[in-house]
Design a protein that fits this description.
By secondary structure, the chain is of the alpha/beta class. The protein folds into 2 domains: 4-48, no CATH class; 72-232 and 284-291, 3-Layer(aba) Sandwich (Rossmann fold). The protein is built from 10 helices and 12 strands. It has helices at residues 33-48, 53-66, 73-78, 120-128, 168-174, 201-207, 215-220, 242-251, 253-256, 262-276; strands at residues 4-8, 21-26, 29-32, 88-92, 107-114, 131-138, 152-158, 175-186, 225-231, 234-238, 278-282, 285-291. α2 (53-66) crosses α8 (242-251) and α8 (242-251) packs antiparallel against α10. The chain is globular and about 55 Å long. The relative contact order is 0.14.
Length: 292
């Protein structure tokens, strides 16, 4: 007996059809029909969670406070860029302008693309402070970007490329001959503590779309020079940090819910904190620098 197989891409436009099928694709990954419906809906909720500007700022400070690695990953990335040659910047999945907050240069253009209109105000506030011209475009990547080829000296994608790795060829098109494509992404090991207790198979597949482990190979298909820089880190919560640990898990609830109830995860991790006196969560990341 044969079954229909469908492709699910962007979760805002692509949905499971009424045709009989057993499996479907989200990106390059094969899921059961039932999982397609659930993941598609929950990924929409995951993306919407990025709209809470105040929450992102608070959790950013929490991560900074509880990180064992006290060096700002943006500072490490910035050290690899020749800023005197950067006039036009494109940020793919820009959010509220987290990466731009760390920049002090004066640019001709800073252009951000994000699927959430709620991020426009925050991004433009930051971008206007460092650029003569700031543009925000609401769009769900991947899609063609209506700009001439070789328009940007620097293209950034910080903690977002695993949502739309298909944009890599378009990023190359938009990059100037001497330009830089800078990516910051998670390691697949970020789930290892939780996976001692829970099955995070679906969330793992999302991260694996562009991770520290496979991002280099994906970039080398399109760019001639690719370097990577490891950023080893852990979040360490001690016995008196139960509130902060719960806040961190709650912030990740839309991701967690792809696989399991966030309340269940929060309760188990708080139990581990009480039993062991501390909880350490992997936060290893990697920076990629790609050149044409």
């Amino acid at each position: 007996m044969t079954h229909s197989v469908i492709y699910l891409g962007r979760p805002d436009t692509d949905t499971c059809s009424n045709a009989p099928f057993t499996y479907c694709f989200i990106g390059n990954f094969l899921f059961t029909k039932e999982s397609c419906y659930v993941i598609n809906a929950r990924m929409n909720e995951t993306i919407k969670s990025y709209a809470d500007f105040a929450s992102h700022k608070r959790i950013g400070e929490l991560i900074k406070s509880y990180s064992e690695n006290k060096e700002d990953i943006r500072d490490i990335a910035k050290h690899e860029i020749k800023w005197n040659k950067i006039l036009a910047v494109l940020d793919l999945g820009c959010g509220y302008g987290w990466f731009e907050e760390a920049l002090g240069n004066r640019f001709d253009l800073v252009y951000g693309i994000d699927c959430l209109a709620e991020n426009e105000e925050g991004f433009l506030r930051v971008a206007k402070s460092i650029a003569k011209k700031a543009i925000f475009k609401q769009a769900r990547l991947p899609l063609p970007i209506e700009m001439p080829s070789e328009s940007f000296d620097l293209i950034v994608s910080a903690y977002s490329l695993y949502f739309f790795p298909e944009i890599i060829p378009e990023a190359k098109r938009l990059l100037c001959p001497d330009g830089t494509f800078l990516i910051i992404t998670h390691s697949e090991s970020m789930l290892k503590e939780g996976e001692e207790f829970f099955d995070f198979s679906n969330l793992s597949e999302v991260i694996k779309k562009f991770s520290a482990e496979n991002g280099g190979a994906a970039l080398k298909k399109h760019f001639s020079r690719v370097i990577s820089i490891n950023y080893p880190n852990n979040l360490l919560f001690k016995k008196d940090d139960a509130v902060q640990l719960a806040q961190y898990i709650d912030f990740k609830k839309e991701f967690i819910s792809i696989d399991i109830s966030p309340e269940v995860v929060r309760q188990r991790m708080l139990e581990e904190l009480k039993k062991n006196g501390n909880v350490k969560l992997n936060k290893d990341d990697r920076i990629f620098i790609a050149k044409k």
